[in-house]
Specification:
Elements: E1 6-16, E2 22-34, H1 38-42, E3 48-49, E4 55-56, H2 70-80, E5 89-94, E6 97-98, E7 106-112, E8 121-127, E9 134-140, E10 142-143, E11 149-154, E12 168-175, E13 179-188, E14 191-204, H3 207-217, H4 220-237
Parallel strand pairs: 3-4
Antiparallel strand pairs: 1-2, 1-14, 2-5, 4-6, 5-7, 7-8, 8-9, 10-11, 11-12, 12-13, 13-14
Length: 250
């Protein structure tokens, strides 16, 4: 079942098409966890836990950091944004804290209506660098003929200092019991400026695979943090314009 705990491994990729071409990709893994059974997942491996483990999953690391169970806080946040998530199941796709370090540019919360094996909506939690702010986009999924889902909306949150605000996001999702593909396109005046995504394979979240991602990917959050600043420097060297934060100008 798609709502069961899982590990997704594969590759994350970025491609900027204007004003210069700049692209990269690297190995990546994401955790898929049913929020109603976090402790059931953590019990499967001795190096995973709530506190002081090599892989740590803390409720307060996600959403608005208020006290309370993450599953309840996600449902309340969804309701405040117009999504009815009172029933059904909610799964989170995100990075856990590894070796004490957490860095999550984006986390996706998926809602499955009662009795359904396909999601009807997603709550996208986005963090920006270096301002350490967060924003939530409620995404109503539109099913496609090929089993994929899509959504489009205006950009409302400043993320990259090398990307302006006057554009929209086009999301596409494809997921089943074998694989996951997520693509986000930045489009302005009918032109695609940038795209990023993941292409991943689903693995069972058992003791063997939970140990495997720990050994193969290590401190992934630290690597992601370093990569963001490294590629920002390369964009600056290529002459890409800097866009200050709309609220502070910095």
């Amino acid at each position: 079942m798609i709502s069961e705990h899982a590990l997704y491994t594969g590759k994350v990729w970025h491609r900027r098409q204007t004003p210069v071409v700049h692209e990269f990709g690297y190995p990546f893994w994401w955790l898929w966890v049913n929020l109603d059974d976090i402790d059931g997942l953590l019990e499967r491996h001795r190096s995973w836990g709530r506190r002081w483990h090599l892989v740590t999953l803390r409720d307060e690391d996600y959403l608005d950091k208020r006290p309370g169970l993450l599953s309840q806080r996600v449902r309340h946040k969804a309701l405040s944004l117009g999504l009815d998530w009172e029933g059904g199941q909610v799964c989170m796709l995100s990075q856990p804290r590894m070796y004490g370090w957490l860095f999550n540019p984006i986390s996706l919360y998926w809602h499955f209506a009662p009795g359904s094996q396909t999601p009807d909506s997603v709550l996208a939690e986005v963090h920006n660098t270096p301002w350490h702010e967060q924003h939530w986009y409620p995404l109503i999924l539109q099913p496609g003929r090929d089993g994929s889902f899509s959504c489009e909306h205006e950009k409302a949150f400043h993320v990259s200092p090398f990307m302006g605000m006057d554009m929209c996001y086009q999301w596409s999702f494809s997921l089943d019991n074998r694989a996951l593909d997520v693509t986000i396109r930045n489009v302005a005046h009918g032109e695609q400026l940038f795209a990023a995504g993941v292409k991943m394979h689903r693995k069972q979240a058992d003791m063997e695979n939970m140990g495997l991602v720990l050994r193969e990917y290590g401190a992934q959050g630290m690597k992601t943090s370093a990569a963001i600043y490294a590629h920002a420097w390369r964009l600056w060297r290529k002459g890409v314009s800097f866009h200050g934060h709309p609220g502070t100008g910095r």
